[in-house]
Amino acid sequence: PIKEKAAVVENLPDTITQTRQSYDSTAAAKQLGAFAMYAKGTKELYTIENDLIKLTLSSKGGRPYSVELKKYKTFSRKPVILFNGDSTKFGLTFYEEQNRLISTNDLFFKAPDSLPHNATVHADSITMRLQVADNRYIEFQYTLKPGSYMVDFSMNLKGMNNIGTRDPNIL
After folding, report:
1. In terms of DSSP bridges, do strands 117-118 and 53-58 run parallel, antiparallel, or are they unpaired?
2. Which residues pair with 104 in a beta bridge?
3. DSSP per-residue string spanning 134-170
4. Which of 9, 58, 93, 121 is positioned for an S-S bond with 103, CB 3.0–4.6 A?
5. DSSP states of 67-81 as a string?
6. How far is it, in rounded angstroms, from Cα 26 to Cα 39?
C-alpha cells in the first residue's frame, strides 16, 4: 500500500501540469477565440539585410526585433545596434467577435521560410502572417532595397472585417 501511494504522489505533478495546460488552452480559447492557436509558440528570428542594415524580425508579434547599422561601429569597435530584444512594441490591438481583446504583440506569426533574405542586389521582403482561416489573416510585410536605410512596411488584413472597437453595450 505504501508503494502504491508513493506512485500516486510521484505522478501528481504530471497530472497538475496536464490540468494546468488544459485550463490554459481553454482560457486562451475563451479569451482569444480564433486567434487562440497562435497564443503559444516558440520565438523564431528571421533576418533581412542589405549593404547598410540588418533587420531581425521576431515571430512573436511579427515585429522588428533588432536593427544593426552595418557601416558603423561603436567606440569599442562593436556593431551599432539601434534596438535589440523585447524592448520595442509594435502591433495591432483590436476587439474581435464577442468583444475579445486581441493584441498581435502576444501572438506568434509564421514566415514562409527561415532563410536569411539578402537585398544587396535586388529588393527583398519577408512576410509575417497570422493565418486565422483559409481566407482570413493578418499579414505584415517588410521590404528592404539595396543602398537604403529605409524599411518599407505594408499590412494586409484579409477577411478581418469583423474587427473594430468595443461595443459599448456589452460590459
Report:
1. unpaired
2. none
3. TTEEEEEEEEE-TT-S-EEEEEEEES-TT-BS--TT-
4. 93
5. EEEEEEE-TTS-EEE
6. 12
Quote the cell numbers at residue 38: 497562435
Please give the grid coordinates belonging to residue 39: 497564443
What is the pTM (predicted TM-score) of this model? Answer: 0.76
List the single range of 10-14, 98-102, 118-122 with lowest mean pLDDT: 10-14
Cell digits of residue 155: 499590412
Q: What is the pLDDT of residues 21-46, one digit of tens each?
A: 444 555 555 677 778 888 989 999 99
Residues 6 or more apart whose Cβ sits within 8 Å of residue 68: 53, 54, 56, 79, 80, 81, 82
The answer to whether 32 touches 100, Cβ cutoff 8 Å, is yes
- The whole-number pLDDT of residue 22 equals 44
Half-sphere exposure of 157 (CA within 13 A, CB side): 9
Measured CA to CA in angstroms, residue 161 lies from 99, 135, 165 at distances of: 14, 12, 12
